[in-house]
């Protein structure tokens, strides 16, 4: 099996064997691969495939999306090309956020889209030939993931201006020029779905809808029963996000209660209308109580949990 692009189209040809002697003197661990990707990439030829696959698992795997794959059609369009190009993301008012977490690649909110930068080794023909194309089961698995990941970039970077945006946001190295990029990525743009991982049969996805799907399906690889990825990193951010909505809700209820009071004072009082308004007023009190619980009690519980966790970590033996 051959890589999907010819050697002449590769964007990097580092001849990975150049640093074999240096790499052979170092016992690479999975931690090295995570924290020093460039050095590890240059010594891949001296590594066992299992070590390489362990690194790829950390860098490219999306277990949560894999668990949700059968239900993704409920929250996203099943079309691998449903991806706005980078410059059009900016036109839509979204900030480009580089994120090394593969599960956040092409996940968007109203004002931002998160994208994983392209790992340098995926530009290297020798890497593909040695580790992704031998035809083994493990290699085939990672080949489909790599194919899908680069196919997503074929739609993200379609024009010269898109490559400029990618350079500015550290998604693609500055030394890769448009002509070379166009020749390389063209081999992935028309790649069929059966050659990519199932996650990449979908394009960009909205984070809020993934939150709902996690709550509905409770996949085994989830980190939270409420969120696909925690949206709040401080209590203040949580309070800020809900204050406006709850303020609007309480103001609307206040208007409704005022109108009911006016109706009771202006019109004939019947037992039916009195009972109806009384029940609604009781329901309003319950809603108000719940709103205050969200504003006060939930953050307090979270703060106590954080304090408890800090105390436990302080006394935990290294």
How would you sum up this structure, described in words?
With 318 residues, the protein is mainly alpha-helical. Helix content is 56%, strand content 4%. The protein has helices at residues 20-24, 30-35, 37-42, 49-60, 63-68, 86-91, 125-132, 137-156, 160-168, 178-189, 207-217, 235-266, 271-315, and strands at 95-98, 107-108, 112-115, 205-206. Strands 1-3-2-4 form a 4-stranded mixed β-sheet. The longest helix is centred in the last third of the chain and has 45 residues, at 271-315. Residues 17-42 have low confidence and may be disordered.
Strand content: under 5%
Sketch the topology as an H/E string, one letter per element: HHHHHHEEEHHHHEHHH
Secondary-structure content class: mainly alpha
Shape call: elongated
Low-confidence stretches: 17-42
User: How would you sum up the major sheet?
Assistant: 4 strands, mixed
Strand order of the largest sheet: 1-3-2-4
Average of the residue pLDDT scores:
81
């Amino acid at each position: 099996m051959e890589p999907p692009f010819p050697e002449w189209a590769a964007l990097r040809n580092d001849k990975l064997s150049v640093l074999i002697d240096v790499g052979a003197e170092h016992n690479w661990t999975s931690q090295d691969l995570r924290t020093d990707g460039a050095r590890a990439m240059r010594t891949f030829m001296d590594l066992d495939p299992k070590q390489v696959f362990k690194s790829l698992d950390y860098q490219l795997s999306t277990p949560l999306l894999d668990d949700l794959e059968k239900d993704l059609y409920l929250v996203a369009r099943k079309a691998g090309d449903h991806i706005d190009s980078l410059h059009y993301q900016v036109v839509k008012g979204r900030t480009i956020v580089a994120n090394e977490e593969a599960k956040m690649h092409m996940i968007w909110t109203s004002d931002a889209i998160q994208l994983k930068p392209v790992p340098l080794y995926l530009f290297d023909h020798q890497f593909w030939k040695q580790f992704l194309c031998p035809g083994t089961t493990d290699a085939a698995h990672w080949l489909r993931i790599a194919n899908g990941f680069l196919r997503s970039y074929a739609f993200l970077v379609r024009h010269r201006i898109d490559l400029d945006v990618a350079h500015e946001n550290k998604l693609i190295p500055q030394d890769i020029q448009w002509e070379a990029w166009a020749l390389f990525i063209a081999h992935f743009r028309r790649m069929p779905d059966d050659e990519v991982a199932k996650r990449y049969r979908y394009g960009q996805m909205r984070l809020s809808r993934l939150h709902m799907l996690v709550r509905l399906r409770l996949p085994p690889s989830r980190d939270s029963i409420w969120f696909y990825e925690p949206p709040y990193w401080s209590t203040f951010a949580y309070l800020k996000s809900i204050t406006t909505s709850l303020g609007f809700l309480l103001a609307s209820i206040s208007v409704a209660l005022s109108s009911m009071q006016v109706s009771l004072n202006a019109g004939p009082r019947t037992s039916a209308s009195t009972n109806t308004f009384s029940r609604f007023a009781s329901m309003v009190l319950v809603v108000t109580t719940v709103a205050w619980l969200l504003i006060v009690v939930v953050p307090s519980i979270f703060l106590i949990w954080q304090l408890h966790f800090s105390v436990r970590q302080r006394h935990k033996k290294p």
